[in-house]
Design brief:
five-stranded mixed β-sheet, alpha/beta
């Protein structure tokens, strides 16, 4: 029995978790949603919008549990916290802020969490850091036998693929990229596909989606507002592609026992165009900053970091190819490290001001 060891005078808050923000995405309800009537209205609207949505059952379960608890506790409230489609840090921050807002309205002494699975329960530490969790209730929906047939499962899966952008990117986007690469690189297709999949895993593993999305948004805004950075981005992209192709072509003219042995050769040919591409992109952002009256400190720091990386990568690749001595390697690496430290100190000094 929930909260059987708690005194009846305590305030109990029943929290329904919607970590992936389906309420907002499907019916436009922005959390927090507080109170039985508002939760009931949100659950009804969500159920009508998507009868297969499990969060609907979570909301109804939250209402049911709160009504049962009212028989034993003096004050009981029910609330729904909605996150974001970008499940992870962003959605958890939103849930955390909404929880603090609810606790200001209803300072609960005990919390009952209602969820539909393990994903929503990732927010449990957030709730525990702000209130005492007395129970965790997971809502499992029972399906009838006909709906468990292969036909309906496949049909539901295809509907999810076509309607949910997150699933569509994985199920349709990745195979689409693989087929496209097969057409462009028929001889080395598996190596190229492995490289692209590795890049996607790095982006996902290090949570770089937000940074990439901001860069794409910045590029789009640059196009719409006729910013200088849009044109420098385009030129920088061409230069970067030329650098990659130049490095790749250079490795094709040699015989290497492994990719590791080919990497220094590739970098020795590709580093100059890639560095130039980075500097071009930063030059465009700098011009925008001057026009808009913003500081250039950030872009200057990034340019110095880029040059230091150019020194270090160039030194390592040249030494690997035995075109410079160990003394020259140490000298160039020292220059690169010195530039990095200088950029760091300049940035720190600018932030203090």
């Amino acid at each position: 029995m929930i909260g059987s060891d708690l005194p009846s005078s305590q305030k109990i808050l029943v929290i329904c978790i919607d970590r992936d923000g389906d309420l907002e995405a499907k019916v436009g309800v922005i959390g927090p949603v507080v109170g039985r009537e508002k939760i009931l209205d949100a659950a009804t609207r969500l159920g009508l919008a998507d009868p297969t949505e499990s969060d609907t059952n979570v909301l109804f379960a939250g209402i049911k549990i709160s009504e049962e608890l009212k028989n034993r506790f003096k004050e009981v409230e029910v609330a729904a916290l909605t996150g974001s489609e970008r499940v992870g840090v962003e959605s958890d921050i939103i849930v955390s802020n909404q929880l603090e807002e609810v606790l200001k309205i209803f300072p609960a002494e005990g919390v009952v969490i209602v969820s539909d699975g393990a994903e929503d329960e990732h927010v449990l530490p957030i709730v525990e850091s702000r209130a005492k969790v007395v129970s965790l209730q997971r809502v499992i929906v029972k399906q009838s036998e006909p709906l468990e047939s292969t036909y309906y499962l496949l049909l539901d899966f295809l509907k999810d693929v076509t309607s949910d952008p997150k699933i569509a990117r994985l199920v349709l986007g990745v195979p689409g990229i693989a087929f496209l690469l097969y057409m462009i690189f028929p001889d080395n297709v598996w190596r190229v596909i492995a490289g692209v999949l590795g890049l996607l895993l790095i982006i996902k593993g290090f949570n770089l989606e937000g940074s990439l999305e901001r860069n794409v948004t910045s590029l789009r805004e640059s196009l719409v507002t006729d910013k200088a950075s849009f044109f420098t981005y385009i030129i920088a992209a061409f230069v970067a592609v030329v650098g990659i192709l130049r490095g790749y072509q250079a490795t094709q003219d040699q015989v290497f026992s492994s990719i590791i042995n080919a990497l220094p050769f590739f970098m020795s040919y590709a580093k100059d165009p890639l560095t130039a591409a980075g500097l071009l992109a930063l030059a465009g952002r700098s011009i925008d900053a001057i026009i808009e009256g913003r500081g250039l400190g950030k872009y200057l720091t990034l340019a110095i970091f880029l040059l230091s990386l150019w020194f270090i990568v160039g030194a390592v690749s040249s030494y690997s190819l035995q075109t410079i001595t160990i003394a020259e390697l140490v000298g160039r690496a020292t220059i690169g490290a010195g530039l990095s430290v200088s950029a760091f100190l300049l940035r720190r000094a600018a932030l203090k001001k």
